[in-house]
Amino acid sequence: xxxxxxxxxxxxxxxxxxxxxxxxxxxxxxxxxxxxxxxxxxxxxxxxxxxxxxxxxxxxxxxxxxxxxxxxxxxxxxxxxxxxxxxxxxxxxxxxxxxxxxxxxxxxxxxxxxxxxxxxxxxxxxxxxxxxxxxxxxxxxxxxxxxxxxxxxxxxxxxxxxxxxxxxxxxxxxxxxxxxxxxxxxxxxxxxxxxxxxxxxxxxxxxxxxxxxxxxxxxxxxxxxxxxxxxxxxxxxxxxxxxxxxxxxxxxxxxxxxxxxxxxxxxxxxxxxxxxxxxxxxxxxxxxxxxxxxxxxxxxxxxxxxxxxxxxxxxxxxxxxxxxxxxxxxxxxxxxxxxxxxxxxxxxxxxxxxxxxxxxxxxxxxxxxxxxxxxxxxxxxxxxxxxxxxxxxxxxxxxxxxxxxxxxxxxxxxxxxxxxxxxxxxxxxxxxxxxxxxxxxxxxxxxxxxxxxxxxxxxxxxxxxxxxxxxxxxxxxxxxxxxxxxxxxxxxxxxxxxxxxxxxxxxxxxxxxxxxxxxxxxxxxxxxxxxxxxxxxxxxxxxxxxxxxxxxxxxxxxxxxxxxxxxxxxxxxxxxxxxxxxxxxxxxxxxxxxxxxxxxxxxxxxxxxxxxxxxxxxxxxxxxxxxxxxxxxxxxxxxxxxxxxxxxxxxxxxxxxxxxxxxxxxxxxxxxxxxxxxxxxxxxxxxxxxxxxxxxxxxxxxxxxxxxxxxxxxxxxxxxxxxxxxxxxxxxxxxxxxxxxxxxxxxxxxxxxxxxxxxx
Length: 760
Description:
This protein is α+β, with helices and mostly antiparallel strands. The protein has 23 helices and 27 strands.
């Protein structure tokens, strides 16, 4: 439901800019790479990707299963956004197409040659189930119940007992140091001494370090390889040699001693039992804590040493902060999420993945001399499957047989992060690209619509990659939506069983009530809760709009020979204000919430409820009470207001507005320009008078209702007293309410209906 609403909002903004005269291109293609599809295929077929893809033939079969799954998902997505009337250009070459992958590989080759990509063995966040490294942005956190174990250690030099609290006792065998805070007087005497690791019997140094929190546990902290990224930082800072005891598959290795071969959770149970048997557990404290998990399979992640390819990003932090401040963020409040993320980056981006359905890293290495070889850009390379593009090693001359193709693929965000370049024709349609990214302008003519949940991934990585390649921001605007929630305000998750399929609701209510909800549900940037009642409201609004148009169509639209009365100008001046507010909301704020609510209220509660009722008698003029010019003035104003309403609503409700516009005015509403205020209306009319008239109408209707008088029934023997400045409207009000109207001070004893409004 949230995704469908997001698509609909993108279309609304695109349609608005087209009506403002922009040449708008909204490409839609499927993001078809990465871990999500592999996890889905593994679950569906009960297979292991790593086992099946261990041979080239097996890998090809696995990739075909992934492709078939993605074809189904893509067809469903296309069906939904087409049904919703989204005016996207469907590009069938998604991120797994040879064209897209050629571009991804070309950008890698360029950055490799510029020295921005390197290979290194480093600690990385690793998913044991997916058996691949993860970027910082691919880690989520889940609250779990667990224990804080207070474990007894011994000081080598003094023999005294010290107690260290840990949630990861299975990593005791990877301990490299013990630290305490320099301001913690309890442990000053331990400086430069050594602690004996319980059960394992080896010694580790004790240091002062500000990372230790005196209030947590006992104030003493075990630094292991690796409990978290603080451990990584301290081990590097102190020049300690790490001891890795966790295998890539999530089991303990031989360095873990008696825990070898056990899965991590089982190893925790075993070591806790052993510590208890040895009398080394001082106490256990039940706690709730946040556990880092893989963003896709939800398995708790580990930090292990892996040899990966890294893209430099830490040295770009200041430049990216500067870039982020040049972009127009809508709403502004979400800019902070991007800035916080950039400021808190701790490591370069590991871009290689030990997975299969992704863009292959275009690289071969020479077994003889160890050289890393990248080919010329311009085509799609599959090093795990095809022969190298050299007859022999360009470095040492070794024969082709000594050149081994890289089997890993890129992180999916390495592909997705160049989406704006792909959509703009970079490297394959330079005429388009130079229009989107003009050389003489700092900011391109690009708009990124996305959810706030992927600011730290899709947005950040795109800004990084485009800046590295082009030296400029990737976007002029970033439009950030909230998350779709269920009717109870909960995020939609399969685990909760609350994921709502949009198709049954689109089938029941139609596309435009759905679009109405998508626009009305929340202000831009806030979470939007699904509400079937708003769908019903949207459907009623469409009916109201149709009925208004049917009434207005009873009268021709005059192009001359009409004369406007003050009441016409007053409501046209009010229309000017609506145009200004709606135009600003669409154009400056990139919002659709305020426009749909503004236009709903103006159409239903102003135009239909007040203006049409005020001029209905003049429009028909059956008794000839008005001149022909005044009658045509009513026709002109009715058509003018409806015309403007339809054009302002067109981005949100494209079907009904186009159907009505064609019937009324013989052409498509989507080929019209967006309304602009008309100077004459504001010069001749006063919007505050229109508001005052509506207040009078409401007061009279309420009075009639209280006195059991029908709204259309005359009120003989009574006079309605209104403020003097509203004198030009007395005839219109008298005509509507069937009562004599006087713009004067009321007599003594007059009944007050509202401020400045009396009846006597």
